[in-house]
Amino acid sequence: xxxxxxxxxxxxxxxxxxxxxxxxxxxxxxxxxxxxxxxxxxxxxxxxxxxxxxxxxxxxxxxxxxxxxxxxxxxxxxxxxxxxxxxxxxxxxxxxxxxxxxxxxxxxxxxxxxxxxxxxxxxxxxxxxxxxxxxxxxxxxxxxxxxxxxxxxxxxxxxxxxxxxxxxxxxxxxxxxxxxxxxxxxxxxxxxxxxxxxxxxxxxxxxxxxxxxxxxxxxxxxxxxxxxxxxxxxxxxxxxxxxxxxxxxxxxxxxxxxxxxxxxxxxxxxxxxxxxxxxxxxxxxxxxxxxxxxxxxxxxxxxxxxxxxxxxxxxxxxxxxxxxxxxxxxxxxxxxxxxxxxxxxxxxxxxxxxxxxxxxxxxxxxxxxxxxxxxxxxxxxxxxxxxxxxxxxxxxxxxxxxxxxxxxxxxxxxxxxxxxxxxxxxxxxxxxxxxxxxxxxxxxxxxxxxxxxxxxxxxxxxxxxxxxxxxxxxxxxxxxxxxxxxxxxxxxxxxxxxxxxxxxxxxxxxxxxxxxxxxxxxxxxxxxxxxxxxxxxxxxxxxxxxxxxxxxxxxxxxxxxxxxxxxxxxxxxxxxxxxxxxxxxxxxx
RNA sequence: GCCGACGUAGCUCAGUUGGCAGAGCAGCCGCCUCGUAAGUGGCAGGUCGCGAGUUCGAAUCUCGCCGUCGGCUCCA
Length: 589
Prior knowledge:
With 589 residues, the protein is of the alpha+beta class. It is built from 18 helices and 28 strands. It has three domains: 12-180, Threonyl-trna Synthetase, Chain A, domain 2 (Threonyl-tRNA Synthetase, Chain A, domain 2, 2-Layer Sandwich), CATH 3.30.980; 195-245 and 279-481, BirA Bifunctional Protein, domain 2; 495-585, Anticodon-binding domain (Rossmann fold, 3-Layer(aba) Sandwich), CATH 3.40.50.
């Protein structure tokens, strides 16, 4: 997301949106005298502007603001750049009572710097590098979208300002297209499809952020999990099962309680015994305990402990979002214990596995974020040398795979840097799916050791990795990626058998039985409905194949196959069963 | 948690200025036996999210909770 530190850009769309933000601010100041304006950058698809308003406003106030903006646009007010010495700029914004602009000037401008301001006619003046369109008449198509609160400088300890989001386009047609695309994206929304396809449900009686996986959704998940575990075992991972709770002390020792107790479930305290148990927010401490069940030799390393582990995090209510952000989730987790020499190779192996999972599942639009520390010292533990060794291993592994990445300063885990696989949902919001993290700190905290060749004790390094991420978030992604039309191997129902009339039910049952023998998930639609209705319903459920049978098929031992794209073929039942089974076995997309 | 919006039948939504709660789809019971996206008739279904308050009277107004959505913050 764009910030005030954002480099100015002369890209035309960027300029247009930035200029529209100025017009928005001008309109708001006209309608709400006494408004202080903070920052108003262009962003992907639009712009926003943050205000401190003299009185609270609601969404019904947006319409009048749009009208005022249209008025300003009709006046064709020129955008004029005025350069001022810093002292004079400070004087100007002081007179205007624009304290946020003063704060920016004082924090970011050097004493001798010439300050750029932009005037919109005589209505509005902003601290701004520009560039801008020539005059407000160059703005042809915009719309205010919504209202939101946003903390000044993105810090929740600061005052919350009122943010107005808008969108702007060169032409009316492009604006309409954008709005149309938004509506289309909403149809792919996993929350909507989750309900329509009966994949999962939320019920306030279980509590916020606690999904119920319905039979169809649980089927997709089971297929993914079976395959994941199988692949990992194949690659030398050792799958374990560890409990969802542990003594609170375990998380105190790991440092998690200290840092994250606000978003951990409250400890369960038992009066009689004095025991204090805690729902686990992640799996690493348990896997460390697995490591410590034996004295480990260098010959055991790398030791890859894996589990699809349930994690419990009490996310703030406003942070919950469908399946993307829940309070209970299952992570495709593993912790690799290795020597420093093995580190880069293990990172590389983890990346390759995550890439492979992504490819087979169809997570095909992602990029790598190398998440590193920033200079907020208190957030990170461990020494400089370890952090740079960790970062070198991560960057080295990416380089060895010829992958480019973007840096994410301040996005590291508290114990070390990581590579995050970043994806976008249907509404273009960014999420982390897979992750590979290097950790020198937990081995230290838990005093992990292995016996080296020379008989001495050494400290292993840990790689934390979620190759497919959390089942919930992955599912949300896949639902949106496929708009609910899963590849056949994942589809909850793979074939619906549809008899043309009740007279064909016995043969339809035979067809279903034959398909089931090949472990194909098949439904026989024996409802009292017409064939057309049954086709319509199978289509709505996005079932990959319909096997439609009547007299002709019964006589020939065939099925009439209609796929969900609408293509039709007639083929022997045996051929159909085999080709679907093959498609499933190959996990074809 | 904070800002804004929202919560009416299983789902999607109507419900005038406060005056007897509606439709379509889904469900159930019939009839129809049909060749590639909705055959047809009937029946049933609602503490209007929950709890207070205002009022002769509240789905509608006020307040507090719960939940959902969009942002902000957070994301081990």
